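Pipeline run #58 for the internal structure catalog. This entry was flagged by the ingest filter as a single-chain record with no existing model, so it goes straight to prediction. Upstream metadata was stripped on purpose; only the residue string is passed forward. Reviewer on rotation: M.T. Logging verbosity set to normal.
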Amino acid sequence: MSEPPLSSTSPPTVRPPTAPPASPSDPRPPKNVLVGRVTRGGSGPCYGMETDDGKQYALYSDAGTSLEVGTTIRVEAAPLLLKIDCGPGEPRSAVRIERVG
């Protein structure tokens, strides 16, 4: 039995790579970026946030950002070096807070 001839609709032949890519094709988000809903709002310096997977964070920021409960935010976070209690959740310093959507 013979194989059918190749046509112009045949997929191209792909050669194996000669080296790994210089950067990932699907980069992962940085570990210091958190996205979730505000659970304790106000004008700071302490806020509460919960991510979609249910993890709670106690955020500290002296920027004076006013946040309403239920607002979705993206936070560039860092370890909290101050001895301050911002409520329940993993303590983090909010380096930058952005409203999403």
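catalog note: The mean pLDDT is 87.
catalog note: The beta strands are 33-40, 46-51, 56-60, 72-79, 90-99.
status: ready for reviewer M.T.
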